[in-house]
Amino acid sequence: MREKKPAAKPVLATVAALAGVSAPTVSKVINGRDDVAAGTRARVQAALEELGYESPVQRRAKSHGPAMVDLVIDGLNNQYALEVLTGLLDFAASEDVEVVVSNVTPAKLHSANHEEWAQRMADAGRKGLILVTSEITAKALSSFSRRNIPVVVIDPLNPPRSGIVSVGATNWAGGKAAAEHLIGLGHRRIAFLGGPNAAECNVARLHGYLAALMSHGIESIPDYVLMGQFSAGFGVEGTRRLLALDEPPTAIFAASDATALGVLDEARRQGVRVPDDLSLVGFDGTALTEQTLPRLTAVAQPLFEMGRAALRSVLRLANGEVLDADHVELATELVVRDSTAAPRIHRAAAVARD
Predict the structure, then answer these.
(1) DSSP 6-34
(2) What is the sign, positive or negative, of the torsion defined by CA atoms of 146, 151, 153, 159?
(3) CATH 3.40.50.1860 correct for 12-53
(4) Closest Cα partner for 134 from 115, 117, 116, 154?
(5) Could you tell me which CATH number the domain at 171-302+335-353 has?
(6) Pair 251, 187: CB distance under 8 Å
(7) How does pLDDT run across 44-93, given as a tens digit for each residue?
(8) What is d(CA 211, CA 37) in angstroms, rounded to the nearest whole number?
């Protein structure tokens, strides 16, 4: 009996016939050219997937060298990003994985042609994509999903759709711990300097702060809750607005260490002493907290471990594993240093009693 030959791998002409286009058009789509109409591109990509076509670049990527993962991050000029990246690269080294890092602004991320981006990653044999503090639409995520490229997001600005893995910290518990610490010291006028309104991590930190106030019967004052960016610039602006109030707060919970740095700068500029006149708690727990004067009390996120967890999740998904949960949440810890103390009126009362 004649031995049956294995089915031949699909060639460009086969793909072209199925998609109803020319072979050169198929070649353009495979090579990421942008001079192909969206509808035509979609038909070609559907045909490529149906026939299981792999470009020469894909075949070479699968047969040679270490696995490669793309990391997209908005800004490598802050301590948060560097600590996440350090953890991720540490795990990559132990797993013989190469990480391709891109610094992409939110505007550029939104305007990118996600179909072409995903196809380039597929052609290069990338194992997955990790996004850090980014906002990405369900439509964009579908571009990667159709090509079986797993996506993991760290501290996403928008809640990811079901089935997309995200990595973060216990933001609600951290926000509550920060406010509880200040309340325990005797503060009742506690302000919150947050990040972007839509950021999921920011909302959770705000709700933790509000829950602590409510549990102690402390009224939330609208003028004490300000939203902006996780940046020193907003820390300066927000502190200026808070200190200009007729009844300024005696304590500030800054929703990021970067914001807290701005608070310290503006307080120093106005002759407000921390913690004698104003107590301050940050959030992130980066190395900066030990370098400020005074040293910053902060809710520490396990940033190093978050980076490791994100890469571990991407690699497991790329290997076809099913994860226990879509959201990986690592515990925060309040680290008390020198930037918090009892409010002045409480200290004066304690001295009088002595």
Answers:
(1) PPPPP-HHHHHHHHTS-HHHHHHHHTT-S
(2) positive
(3) no
(4) 154
(5) 3.40.50.2300
(6) yes
(7) 888 877 877 766 555 544 555 678 999 998 776 678 888 999 999 999 99
(8) 52
| Residue that has been written with the tokens 């890092």 in this structure | 101
CA distance 58 to 62: 6
Q: How far apart are the first and last CA of the chain?
A: 104
pLDDT exceeds 90 at position 25: no
pLDDT in tens, 290-300: 999 999 999 99
3 state DSSP class of 167:
strand
CB 111 within 8 A of CB 134: no
Query: What is the secondary structure of 58-120 as a DSSP string?
Result: HHHHHHSS-EEEEEEES-SSSHHHHHHHHHHHHHHHHTTEEEEEEE--HHHHHHS-HHHHHHH
| Superfamily of domain 65-167+304-328 in the CATH hierarchy | Response regulator (3.40.50.2300)
Q: How many residues does the chain have?
A: 354
